[in-house]
Every structure is written in structure tokens, then in C-alpha cells.
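User: Okay, second chain of the day. Same drill as before: sequence in, C-alpha cells out.
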Amino acid sequence: MDAELALLALCTGCGLGFLLLALRSLVVVGRLWARGLRVMGVVTPRGAGDRRPGGLVAFCDHLGRHLLLEPGRYGALCGLPPVGGSVPVVYVRERPTAARLWTVRHLLAPAFGWFLSSALAFGTGVVVSP
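Assistant: Same drill. C-alpha cells below.
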């Protein structure tokens, strides 16, 4: 009985934590939508020694500095065009190094992943509840 209750508490705590992380990432997207600066970036190839798939996104911030954005492991799955294509980039004026791609899939993928993790943790808690 005590082990089942401890497992239920653990699943509930993890589920609430994951749900808070999902809400936090949605708040970040809302801030980018409200206060972010949108520029166009160009997908550039990676260096010859870099074996990761996809490309990097080169863009200029509001001060004219040239920056590179790493779209992550799943850039192609989140709407990154092939090398040479252009893609919108959004960043907060104070932090251009924390830029993100301005595509629905790239912006909402973290929140969706945290929400699915939360649902899985809550579901596990319901299944093992006494």
C-alpha cells in the first residue's frame, strides 16, 4: 500500500512538473510573439567535419551582427527548408543569441513534448493508483 501511494505521488509530481514546463514554454512563445523581432535567415550548410544532419540558419540582428542559429536535432522535422532556403527567425531585442525559428512546429514542439510527458505521467499514476 505504501509503495503504491509513493508511486502515485511520484507520478503526480512528475506530471505537474512537466505540465508547468509546458506552460513555461508556451509563455516564452507568447513573449516572442508579442515582443520579438522577426528577420529572415538563410539556411547554410554545416562545416565539413560536422556530421549532424540539417543546416545552420544565418541571420543579422538589429545591430547588424551576423549570427548563426542551431535549429536542433529535429530542424528538418520542424520546418527547416533545405540549404539555401530562407526561413523567418524571431528573437527578443535584448537576447539575439536566443533566437528561434518562426515556424509553428519549431515554436510549439517543446510545449507539445512536455504536455505529452505530463499526460504519460498522469496516466501512469491513474493506472497504478490503489
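The beta strands are 36-44, 56-60, 66-69, 86-92, 95-101.

User: Thanks, on to the next one.
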